[in-house]
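Q: what sequence does this backbone want?
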C-alpha cells in the first residue's frame, strides 16, 4: 500500500517552515540584529521573510545581482568590506570622505556631476520594474567609474 504525503508535510517543507519561523522570531526578538540586515529591513517596504522579490523574475542575472548587492550593502566599497581594505576608508575617487555605499552612490563630487547620475536609497527599494532597471544601470555606471579611478602616488 502506498503512503501519500502532500507537499506541505514533507520533511523539507517542515524544515523550511521551522527555519523561516526561527529567523522571523530572531528578527523580532533582537530588533536590529546586524547593520546590513537592518538596512534591508528598514528600507524594503513590502519585504516578508521567505517571499521572493518580483525583480528576481524580471531581470537578467547581472541586473539582479547588482540590485541585490545594493539592497544588502554588499557593493564593493570600502565601508562594506572593511577588512579587505586594511583600514583605508578614504574614497578612491575624491580622497575627501569615507567611502561608504551612500557616498559612492549619491554624494561623491567626483563621481556625480549632476542629479541624474545619483542613486538614493529610496530608489534601491522601488517596486517599479522600470525604475529598478534605471537604478541598476546607474549603479553599474557608478561602479565602473569608481573602478577606473587610479590612485595617485
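A:
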Amino acid at each position: 500500500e502506498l503512503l501519500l504525503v502532500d507537499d506541505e508535510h514533507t520533511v523539507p517543507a517542515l524544515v523550511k517552515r521551522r527555519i523561516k519561523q526561527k529567523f522571523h522570531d530572531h528578527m523580532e526578538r533582537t530588533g536590529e540584529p546586524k547593520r546590513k540586515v537592518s538596512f534591508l529591513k528598514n528600507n524594503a517596504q513590502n519585504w516578508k521573510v521567505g517571499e521572493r522579490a518580483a525583480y528576481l523574475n524580471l531581470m537578467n542575472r547581472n541586473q539582479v545581482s547588482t540590485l541585490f548587492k545594493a539592497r544588502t550593502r554588499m557593493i564593493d566599497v570600502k565601508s562594506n568590506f572593511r577588512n579587505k581594505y586594511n583600514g583605508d576608508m578614504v574614497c578612491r575617487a575624491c580622497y575627501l570622505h569615507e567611502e561608504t555605499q551612500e557616498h559612492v552612490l549619491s554624494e561623491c563630487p567626483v563621481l556625480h556631476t549632476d542629479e541624474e547620475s545619483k542613486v538614493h536609497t529610496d530608489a534601491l527599494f522601488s517596486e517599479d520594474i522600470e525604475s529598478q532597471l534605471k537604478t541598476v544601470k546607474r549603479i553599474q555606471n557608478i561602479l565602473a567609474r569608481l573602478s577606473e579611478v587610479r590612485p595617485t602616488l
